[in-house]
Design a protein that fits this description.
The structure is a single chain. The protein is mainly beta. It has one domain (about 30-295): TolB, C-terminal domain (Neuraminidase), CATH 2.120.10. The chain has one helix and 23 strands. The termini are far apart. This is T9SS C-terminal target domain-containing protein. It comes from Draconibacterium orientale.
Length: about 300
C-alpha cells in the first residue's frame, strides 16, 4: 500500500507536470563575464556560497571543508576566519543574511541519502573584529516531508539543495533537482527548530541551481546554475509577495566562463551581480562580475 508521503509526492509531481510550462517573457540573452577578484587565497579553493557583509566578501569550502566561514577582501586575501562552534561541514552550500543573522545551509545532498540536513544561524552581534574567532550557532533542522526513500540516488534525486535566500523574515530554498532540472521552492522559518518542509512552487529552470540571492531593494531574485558545463542566471522581478516565479523572468547565458563550476552568487548592487567559482583544472577560485546594464538585449 502506498504511504501518505509517497501519495503526496505523486500528487505534487502530477500537478506540477500538468501545469503548462511558463514561457519566460524574453528569449535567452547573453552577458559577458568581467574579472572582479581574479584569485582568492588557496585556503578558500572550493568556495561555495558568496555574501557581502561589513565591507568584506564571505564564503566557505563545501563538502568536507572545515567548519569555518572566511571573510576576504577585493584582493582575495582572507581577513577573517570564523569557526562555528559545535558545527560540522558535511556539505555547506549556501549563505544568506537578514538584518540580524547570517545563515549557512548544510543541505548539499547529491546522493539523496542524507537525513541530517540543517541550517546554521549566526547572530551578527557575536562577530568581532578579531582575525580569528569562534562563535556559537543555532540549528534549524530540516526534513523533506515528501521524502521517504533515503537510498543512494546519485544525480537523480530531487532532494538536493544549494541555494537559499532570506526574505521578509523567512528563508527560501531552491532545489537542485537532478531528476528533471527544475527547481522546487521551499519556505523555512528563521528560528531554531525542527521543520518538515514541502514545496510551495516550482519552475523549469532547465539547469542545476547552485546559488541564489535577492537584490538590495528586494525586487529581484537571482538564481545561478549550470547545464552541460555552461552557466546561466535566472532573474525574477515584479513578483507578488513571495511568489517569485509568478513575476517577470529572464534567462541569461553567462559568456566567457564555459566550464567554470559556478557555486555562489550575490548582488553587488541592484544592477550588478557577482558569481564565484571554485578551483578546477580550467579556472582558479575567483569571483566574476556581471553588469546587468550590459545585457545583450538591453531589457534590464
Amino acid at each position: 500500500m502506498i504511504n501518505i508521503h509517497s501519495w503526496l509526492l505523486l500528487m505534487f509531481v502530477f500537478f506540477s507536470c500538468s501545469i503548462p510550462e511558463k514561457e519566460h517573457e524574453n528569449p535567452t540573452v547573453q552577458l559577458k563575464a568581467e574579472n572582479y577578484i581574479p584569485e582568492i587565497a588557496d585556503k578558500l579553493n572550493e568556495i561555495s556560497g558568496l555574501m557581502i557583509y561589513n565591507k568584506h566578501f564571505w564564503g566557505f569550502n563545501d563538502s568536507g571543508g572545515k567548519n569555518e566561514l572566511y571573510g576576504f577582501n577585493k584582493s582575495g586575501q582572507i581577513i577573517y576566519e570564523i569557526e562555528l562552534d559545535n558545527a560540522q561541514n558535511e556539505d555547506w552550500e549556501s549563505i544568506t543574511q537578514s538584518e540580524e543573522n547570517i545563515f549557512i545551509g548544510d543541505f548539499g545532498n547529491n546522493m539523496g541519502n542524507r537525513n541530517n540536513l540543517l541550517i546554521y544561524r549566526i547572530d551578527k552581534k557575536d562577530l568581532s573584529e578579531k582575525a580569528e574567532q569562534k562563535i556559537d550557532t543555532k540549528e534549524i533542522k530540516l526534513k523533506y516531508a515528501l521524502q521517504d526513500n533515503f537510498s543512494y540516488l546519485k544525480k537523480t534525486t530531487p532532494y538536493d539543495c544549494e541555494a537559499m535566500v532570506a526574505f521578509k523574515n523567512k528563508l527560501y530554498l531552491f532545489s537542485k533537482n537532478w531528476r528533471d532540472e527544475t527547481t522546487w521552492q521551499y519556505k523555512v522559518p528563521t528560528k531554531k527548530g525542527d521543520y518538515e518542509i514541502t514545496p510551495t512552487d516550482t519552475f523549469n529552470v532547465k539547469c542545476l541551481v547552485t546559488g541564489a540571492d535577492i537584490s538590495p531593494d528586494n525586487k529581484t531574485l537571482a538564481l545561478v546554475g549550470y547545464e552541460n558545463y555552461r552557466s546561466f542566471i535566472w532573474l525574477f522581478s515584479d513578483f507578488p509577495g513571495d511568489r517569485f516565479f509568478e513575476g517577470k523572468s529572464q534567462h541569461i547565458k553567462l559568456e566567457g566562463i564555459d566550464g567554470a563550476q559556478t557555486e555562489g552568487i550575490c548582488f553587488l548592487s541592484n544592477d550588478s551581480i557577482l558569481v564565484s567559482c571554485e578551483k578546477t583544472q580550467s579556472y582558479n577560485q575567483q569571483v566574476f562580475l556581471f553588469d546587468l546594464n550590459k545585457l545583450s538585449d538591453g531589457t534590464h
